Amino acid sequence: MARDMSDKEILKMELEQLKKEVSTTRTPLLANCAETVTFVEALLPDDPLIKGVPDDKNPYKGDKGGCIIT
Question: Apex CA 25: angle with CA 22 and CA 42, to 5°?
Fold first, then answer.
């Protein structure tokens, strides 16, 4: 796409993109981190990777036996 455009057209596109980026509202990193921590901590009680899966809901737990690595 850029190969078919003149240098002037490419510069015009870059200028338009920079204008869009300048008008984008930005939040401080600290605020974003705080929101992320709050979000993760709110989901923590239901997270199966942290809490584990109950045996009655675990499709991989059953009478198949297990595997022991020695």
Answer: 145
Could you tell me the two tokens for 65? Answer: 């036996």
Sign of CA dihedral 54, 58, 64, 70: negative
Helices (H), 1-70: 7-23, 29-43, 48-51
Tens of pLDDT, residues 7-58: 999 999 999 999 999 999 888 899 899 999 999 999 998 888 888 888 888 8
Contacts of 50 (CB under 8 A, 6+ apart): 44
What's the pTM value of the predicted model, to 2 decimals?
0.44
d(CA 22, CA 45): 40
Q: Judging by beta carbons within 10 Å of its beta carbon (0-12, 13-18, 19+), is residue 69 exposed, middle or buried?
A: exposed
